[in-house]
Amino acid sequence: MTERKSITITWRIKNFSFCWQKEERELPGPTFVIERLQGSKWTLFLFPRASRYKEEGSMACYLHHESEENGSHEIEIGFELSALGSDGLPLETVSFIKCKMQGNDWSSPLLLKKKTVFLEKRDAFLPKDSLTVLCRIWQINQENINSERYFATTRIELQKVSLFGVVKKNDDCPIQGQRYHVQFISVSTETSPIFINVRVTQEGLSYAVIKQAESKLLKFCKCKLHFSDATGKEIAYGQGEFQFDIIPLYWDEPNWILPLTFTEQNTTSCHDTWNMNPHLEMDNLNLQCEIAYSIGIVTENIEKVDYSINTFQNGCRLKGKRQKRLPSLKDDMFSLMTNADSCDIKLRTVNKTFPAHRIILSARSLFFKNKLDQKNKGETIYVADLDNETLYQMLVFLYTDTIENFELGNVMKLYIAGAKYGIPSLKDRCFCFLQNNLDASICCAALQLADQYQDGALKKAALNYILENGDEVIGSDKWQDLERFTELKEEVLCLKTMKN
After folding, report:
1. Do residues 112 and 190 both lie within one domain?
2. Mind telling me which CDD domains this protein's record contains (predicted)?
């Protein structure tokens, strides 16, 4: 059976649990144009808190056919929407073999139960708090369409702050309960994005009252509160999350209530004390608060990947050079990788096993070639120095010569994997990415990496960046990480002196 040619879009949403969209508000995803589908434009949308009748308690992902200026064209397509797990395989899928869509049409949704995603199977659906959606589109009765693949990333930007304060009794408290206010004595990075006060009722119920600071425009916030006495002993704690995209009624300002839980060793004594004098246990307690919040900033990028001969040269993508594609080769190799039935070797990290094929590993990696050539061949090879995600990405590269999730967060790990396991093409691909994306945040780490693995080209690129941007780099937190690399640090300072 001939493989169906399709357009594939992989959309990864990072920091997904910080989505602030309320009911029926969408998080827009990538928009892409498919020239061979009449130049039609398509967008993926996710509704994190869908609330229609059939969607209650679910998240909904849709494929949207955008309107066109020159009129709507009806296109007959098939499509598939899937939520991928931590292993890259579909967890939930909805597929439609044949449907007609005009401009501004919405597809039927992929529905995901929030309870399943966030609680029951969180590790599978949200590895590193990232949700990955896969969309495949193909045209009915159309043979001249080539397979194309897009990778898109949406990142909900977060800010974090640590607050330290002291709980003080408020003498102007109302009759019906005891109120306290919090005097913040230090802030880790900036002024507090929220106000926190504490209330204890006459019934012994204790909770924190949280309100957004006027200078902030928070969308979503997660708080962890810890109360301790003068000896450092924890007395109470609380944690919760709050959606700030709420319009206050009339003159009232919205408050968010966070119940406090007292530690087991203090539960009885605290309640006994409250019955006599409710404020004693909260007055002068130390408060430590960890806050992670979003103010609604989203960064996006989308990359079209061409699977073609000579698409890459010396590890770098050549712009404007398109040759005959071999799309089915990549797809078939990825399918081979995920087909555990045909695998004859296993790679084992600290806590996960990945099936693989001896012939592929031997052909692509000098390390595995030598390992598998030994007489005492084992069924399992331990690679405990790699985490699960890095090993998975390395295997994808070994089978398909592509990197699914290429970004600063994982490129250095993949560089090390390429060096350790004898995969020079992977190492060179990572070098190209690092060279093209050097900045003050990674140049020192790149210099250490180059020195450790004797990569003269990467070392030269990192040194040149530091010398040209010395005021921004030298003295920074990243520069302090070079303290234990004395010779390397002295080399940089010597070159800087010579340049001046």
Report:
1. no
2. BACK, BTB_POZ_ZBTB_KLHL-like
